[in-house]
Amino acid sequence: MKKRYRIANRKKFITSTALLLFLSFCILSVPLRLVQANGMQEKQYREIVVKPGDTVWAIAESQNQDCDVRETVFEIFETNHLSNHIIKPGQTILVPVKLTK
């Protein structure tokens, strides 16, 4: 025979259950709201083969004309783990593609 549980205080049980469900919802929805608030999207990149005379700045200007070139240059440095401005012809670098909404 199974042991049956009895709810001693129905009002307290319902309040506790509702509070638990509400807190669970809040905790689970926070990461979703952070992603939406920060506008985080999976970044997309374009592979560019460096030609003689190319610079990081020139590549950033040519690939993303509608945004701040400094941000694009910074992202190129970060994405490709460049420690200085020197890039060599034939080298392949990833350039972030700005997505329009």
Number of helices: 3
Distance between the termini: 62 Å
CATH superfamily of the largest domain: LysM domain
Low-confidence parts lasting 5 or more residues at pLDDT below 50?
Answer: none
- State the CATH class of the largest domain: Alpha Beta
User: What's the helix-strand series?
Assistant: HEHHE
Number of strands: 2
DSSP helix fraction = 40-55%
In the CATH hierarchy, the architecture of the largest domain is Roll
Arrangement of strands in the largest sheet: 1-2
What is the mean pLDDT?
A: 83
Strand composition percent: 5-15%
CATH topology of the largest domain: Membrane-bound Lytic Murein Transglycosylase D, Chain A
Rg? 26 Å
Gross morphology is rod-shaped
Q: Structurally, how many domains make up the residues?
A: 2
Query: Structural class of the helices, strands and pairings?
Result: mainly alpha
The main β sheet shows up as: 2 strands, antiparallel
What does this structure look like?
The protein contains three helices and two strands; from the N terminus they run H-E-H-H-E. By secondary structure, it is mainly alpha-helical. It folds into two domains: 7-40; 44-97, Roll (Membrane-bound Lytic Murein Transglycosylase D, Chain A). Helix 2 (56-63) packs across helix 3. The longest helix has 29 residues, at 10-38.
